[in-house]
Amino acid sequence: MKTLMKGLVLSLALVLGAGPALADTIKIGVAGAHSGDLASYGLPAVNAAKLVAEKVNAQGGVNGMMVEVQAEDDQCKPEMATNAATKLVSDKATVIIGHICSGATKAALPIYKAANLVVMSPSATNPPLTKSGEFPNFFRTIATDDEQGPALAAFAANKLNLKKVAIIHDKGDYGKGVAEFCKAAMEKAGKVKVVLFEGIGADQVDYAAVIQKIKQAGAEGVVYGGYHPGASKLISQMRKKKIAIPFLTDEGVQGPDFLKLAGNDAEGAYATGLIDVSGNAMYKAAAEAHQKAFGTAETGLFFAQAYAATQSLLNAIDKAKSTKYEDIMKALHTETADTCLGKIKFNAQGDAQAEGVGFSVYQVKNGKWELNK
Questions:
Q1: Distance (Å, rounded) from C-alpha 39 to C-alpha 21?
Q2: What CA–CA distance (Å, rounded) separates 179 from 161?
């Protein structure tokens, strides 16, 4: 993990240290959490965009234009996301990769929409971001929470045979969204009773009150919607109180930081996670490039999704023979891109359709996340 973070921090320093954009340059803005508790979610996207840019530039660029990457940090905070978006618009970004968290993405999108900038997130899973139709300029290379929540519900009912579940969330757009979709799926199927549904603060130190409610409700399992800081505290405090019931969570938790923070308490936990694309030849080449550039093959969460997003946007610019908003939009909706997630097509709403887009269920075994078969 130390090697991974060293590589991530190095990559950010390289990007931020870049000079001003050259003439006839495609500037890719990469917005997300590059510092703070959720930096491990955002920095892999910077790495991915930088590696794609280096590869494309070495091949002569796109339609004769070189590709530059500009990173802007939002720490996954909506108020910082608007600042990052304003900066990228002011600096005349061509397209945007980001943001990372759904709440930050939602806050920034009106700014990009007003500026006619195409935005593609590798990780923002809140369904209304595309499905409301409010932001036609928004695309993503990840599946949505209305798929993830039901996946958790089905696993709890059909694989773990749970009858009573407590669903806890961090009150954020992402965590609450996953929790609500899970709850709705459980209620519709009728196999699992939701005995407690409650929000808690991710920055809260003591979860004793909600843990007591979980115990009193007779829950046979807990589903947590949110990110690794809250999930790690909740499961550790549950285990300290000798509550050993199954713990299920989402892809926002399914990464190395949860394992590091929760330690032995993480053992046995389940999480939805991104489909494994390690067998994809293009992904293998990207991982090798990452190893060479940053000294580690551990690419981090959302690296593949950000790599594919960068490939998709540059493919659209190439096929459109233009960097104009309308031309990029048309190409994204009509052209297919070869990416490390497979061949991607975007539907009318902006959601990616590809073999490598979707969710699987993983479990912590011997301190590592393993695909649950």
A1: 25
A2: 19
Give the Cα separation of 32 and 208 in Å (integer). 32
Strands 337-339 and 270-274: unpaired
Nearest of 259, 218, 215 to residue 241 by alpha carbon: 215
In the numeric block, the tokens 């939009």 are attached to 329
> Contact at 8 Å (CB) between 44 and 300?
yes
Residue type, 39: A
Round to whole Å and give the CA distance between 44 and 50. Answer: 10
Residue 157 CA to residue 26 CA, distance in Å, equals: 48
Task: Give the chain's length.
Answer: 373
DSSP E strand boundaries for 42-160: 66-73, 95-97, 119-121, 138-140
pLDDT tens across 18-62, in order? 333 444 899 999 999 999 999 999 999 999 999 999 999 999 999
Q: SS3 for 325?
A: helix
Give SS3 for 21. coil
Closest C-alpha among 112, 119, 109, 177 to residue 149: 177
3-state DSSP assignment of residue 242? coil
Provide the CA 358 distance to its chain's centre, in angstroms.
Answer: 12
Q: Spell out the CATH class of 2-143+278-353.
A: alpha beta
SS3 for 171-221 is: CCHHHHHHHHHHHHHHHHHCCCEEEEEEECCCCCCCCHHHHHHHHHCCCCE
List the 342-346 sheet strands across, edge first: 337-339, 342-346, 352-353
User: Does the predicted model carry a pTM greater than 0.90?
Assistant: no
For 238, phi then psi, to 5°, come to -65, -45
For residue 12, name the pLDDT band (cuts at 50, 70, 90): very low
In CATH, the architecture of 145-275+359-371 is 3-Layer(aba) Sandwich (3.40)
Report percent pLDDT > 90 for the chain: 91
Tokens encoding 39:
């930096």
Q: How far is it, in rounded angstroms, from Cα 369 to Cα 188?
A: 30
Query: In this structure, how many other beta carbons lie within 10 angstroms of the beta carbon of residue 292?
Result: 10
- Domain span(s) for CATH 3.40.50.2300 in the chain: 2-143+278-353, 145-275+359-371
CA distance linking residue 179 with residue 224, whole number of Å = 7
